[in-house]
């Protein structure tokens, strides 16, 4: 099995991942776009073609060209709000006076496709192997979520930050992770790892370590503040809506907290969920970092994937597209193929179980129950724990190791020409 795959990769050549990603993006566009600008008969849930772009077109002032935060409500961070406005502009230019939600959906899908190619280019420039490039290019989550939402913007920042950290450019990685946090919060989980890497760096005095960590904190604050503070100063209430909305949400159907409440195992109100989800995440993340430090302390960014996986498991909100946050990190640093396959299966099961639950609520078929969502969540949860275990215990993938520079020739020997 391994040899035929390798032969196919060799035959397609170095440009094969581009062709594969183009095909994946085409399928991703078709998966969402076939429902068009309006939904009927619960088709958005039955077929899985639901996209946030469709309701956003009319409910967030996109159709009217309103500027997010200043003229329209927006429950996303600033950079994502800016992307939504740009894609709305593209939709209105393409569709003209007759522009509708379908045009906006096409613009969102195109924007995410461009970001997916940017991620692939980042991987290629970093020397990631062809197999991992194909794993991104042929990613089932891209089919599911390419036209679903705007998470790929933060994903792109997170990938760029991780690869910058791999090159030893900690300040650049910190700035990129902070900017990612201005698109969606999850990239900020890399910041403590970068800070710890500075504080615990071998061969440095404590003064040097503390100084380096302080610089990283300043870089993160400056990068995040540069895009957030102007908006917060001029439109504070709309700017803070994302943070208020996140705090006030009760949860989603496939989260651990909602499932425990549905089955009567532990019913919690919102403040209780906020508190215990934070406690469990912080305790588990600290354990992951402590256990993985001996093997990966010289490259703490390798622990971003298991920390993010644990965050998804413990968070009160686990929307289906959140799997797209983790997927490129699995592609880059994952070591256990069976766990990867199980994660993809869990993602697919959770996606359709959750939407078919909504279909059932509207009297449509196929429908799903909370038991179906629980089964899918268990499959995905086992995969996440497996991936976390592998990330902590296994050696890092070979591509992550930057070879040392070649030794200079001895001074008493001439350097060969050419």
Please explain how this structure is put together.
With 418 residues, this protein is an all-alpha fold. Helix content is 67%, strand content 0%. It contains 20 helices and no strands. Helix 2 packs parallel to helix 7 and helix 19 (337-361) packs antiparallel against helix 20 (370-393).
Large-scale geometry: globular
Q: Mind telling me the C-alpha Rg?
A: 22 Å
Main sheet record:
none
Strand elements, count:
0
Summary of the model, kept short:
The chain is mainly alpha-helical and 418 residues long. Helices cover 67% and strands 0% of the residues.
Structural topology:
Elements: H1 2-12, H2 16-33, H3 43-46, H4 53-59, H5 78-95, H6 101-125, H7 130-137, H8 140-145, H9 151-166, H10 170-181, H11 190-199, H12 206-234, H13 236-239, H14 241-248, H15 256-262, H16 270-296, H17 304-314, H18 323-333, H19 337-361, H20 370-393
Any key phrases for this structure?
single chain, 0% strand, mainly alpha, 67% helix, 418 residues
